[in-house]
Amino acid sequence: MRLATWNVNSLKARLPRVEEWLSTFRPDVLCMQETKCADDAFPLMTFQAMGYDGVHYGVGRWNGVAILSRVGIEHVVAGFGDGDTEDAEARLLWGTCAGVRIGTVYVPNGREVGHEQYQYKLRWLDRLRRKVASERPSSEPLIVCGDFNIAPDDRDVYDPAVYVGATHVSAPERAALQSMLDWGMVDVFRRFYDAGGLFSWWDYRAGNFHKGKGMRIDLILMTETLAERATSVLIDRNARKGKGPSDHAPVVVDIDVT
DNA sequence: ATGGTCGCGCAGCGA
Fold it and tell me: Which nucleotide is nearest to A35 (CA to C1')?
């Protein structure tokens, strides 16, 4: 199975790039974040014409998540579906593709440390951890991928000094991510790369992409039973180049599920 | 030149 995650930063603005990318990589599953569209504006037929089924959860303008699959999508759940009051923002969507339970996540940005949005981010991450643990036993195949808005460690930012005191690197955020890893999820990218300087997001401003000033905040977490079958991972930074890119690059994993 | 970007949606905010 080839699975990818990509924060597209508006599906409407990015559709030509997404179509081009799909036809090149032909993933079995593509999880998207920040579609910024409502469900009735999701261009499902465009994807169907390319052989993909798709589900979307969004209310327009901000956030919005989607899953495309050419190996089927079943048991779709929008949001946490944990019985508590549903989050007002569309940041989480689940589906089962070829027997693998998959969640696409757009973790809140947090704005700045201590901000009300930062507290929301930490609460959201804790709720995600509980949701993940209730979704499947850690011994079973489970993938949670997307824009976590967390750089797992200092290798994942271009200059740790720049980010002292900032969101995305704070100890509580990293601890929240670590608690999911402790439960049994693997940041599969790190199974293949030890180096720093390998990023998935670069600010549009000030030519940061061309200066190599980025962060790795788009993650594919999977349970060990899948991670041990992963055969390759890459961040397609070519997708960040050229005219009209998202500020995020897709992350792709190949898993031998035969 | 002394900042430098996008997207949404039409001002200014969020990232």
Answer: B7
Which chain B positions come under 7 Å from a protein C-beta? 4-9, 14-15
Residue showing tokens 């991928």: A145
Measured CA to C1', the nucleotide nearest A206 is B4
Exposure on the CB side of residue A149, measured as CA atoms within 13 A? 23
Tell me if A167 sits within 8 A of A118, measured CB to CB. yes
The pTM (predicted TM-score) of the whole model is: 0.98
Q: Residue A59 CB closer than 7 angstroms to strand B?
A: no
From the Cβ of A206, is strand B under 7 Å away? yes
Q: How far is the CA of A256 from the C1' of B13 (A)?
A: 44
The tens place of each residue's pLDDT in chain A, 258 residues long, gives 999 999 999 999 999 999 999 999 999 999 999 999 999 999 999 999 999 999 999 998 999 999 999 999 999 999 999 999 999 999 999 999 999 999 999 999 999 999 999 999 999 999 999 999 999 999 999 999 999 999 999 999 999 999 999 999 999 999 999 999 999 999 999 999 999 999 999 999 999 999 999 999 999 999 999 999 999 999 999 999 999 999 999 999 999 998
CA angle A111/A116/A122 to nearest 5° reads 80
Could you give the 3-state DSSP secondary structure of residue A23? Answer: helix
